[in-house]
Design brief:
By secondary structure, the protein is an alpha/beta fold. 44% of the residues lie in helices and 12% in strands. It has two domains: 135 residues, no CATH class; 71 residues.
């Protein structure tokens, strides 16, 4: 069940839900039909995930599950079934549901793939969940300022700490994936590792930009 908003965000945690509940809470008309169109795409993606037979759960994350009137997209975590054979070569329908590029091109969603949803979900995996950090970056900001800051990376120390926490989680996920590399087909490993590595590098750049590493700091001169 999806809980009530508290200060424009859901309570912290991962909450099991149905597509009907998602539609009712997040798919309504808010200032424009943006949320309605995103929810329609989400419904199609969830149905495709169900039909694939390889997905244990889809976790909805990001600004879509806040009170932001017009989120740009939907962030998803696709948790694969724990008994899914990672050593086999990818079939087309399996590739589509896991491919960051294909999902972005088809649905305009950002996805990450989890080998096992047990680390994300508080109980037995269900089909659909929403996840919230319990904090809002857009709290008490004018709309124009919020749009600017969303694209301006880290704005304050609180966001710096949040970004560092996110980086730790991504690095842990990458370490687990690398540990399982011998048991994963090469094409599957590449597809799963690529978005994690891209996110790690992006967050590292954001942290370095905020703390000033890239602001006029060059490499030390070599002594001769």
């Amino acid at each position: 069940m999806i809980l009530e908003f508290v200060d424009r965000v859901l309570p912290e945690g991962t909450h099991e839900c149905t597509m009907e509940e998602v539609d009712q809470v997040f798919g309504r008309f808010w200032r424009s039909d943006r949320r309605m169109r995103l929810t329609d795409k989400l419904r199609r993606f969830v149905e495709e995930a169900r039909q694939s037979g390889i997905v244990a759960a889809v976790v909805i994350d990001g600004s879509y599950v806040t009170a932001k009137p017009e989120p740009a997209d939907i962030d998803l975590i696709v948790a694969l079934r724990p008994d899914f054979n990672l050593a086999q070569e990818l079939r087309p329908f399996e590739y589509n549901i896991q491919s960051k590029r294909w999902v972005k091109k088809t649905y305009r969603f950002d996805i990450r793939v989890a080998l096992d949803g047990s680390a994300l979900l508080p109980g037995a995996p269900g089909v659909l969940w929403v996840r919230s950090s319990g904090r809002s970056r857009a709290r008490d900001r004018p709309a124009a300022q919020g749009a600017l800051e969303d694209s301006a990376m880290i704005q304050n120390d609180e966001q710096l700490n949040q970004t560092r926490e996110a980086l730790i989680h991504l690095e842990s996920a990458m370490a687990l994936l690398a540990r399982d590399k011998p048991n994963i087909h090469a094409s599957r490993y590449s597809m799963m590792a690529e978005p994690i590595v891209a996110d790690i590098r992006r967050l590292r750049r954001e942290i370095e930009a905020y703390i000033g590493i890239d602001a006029g700091v060059g490499e030390p001169a070599s002594s001769t």
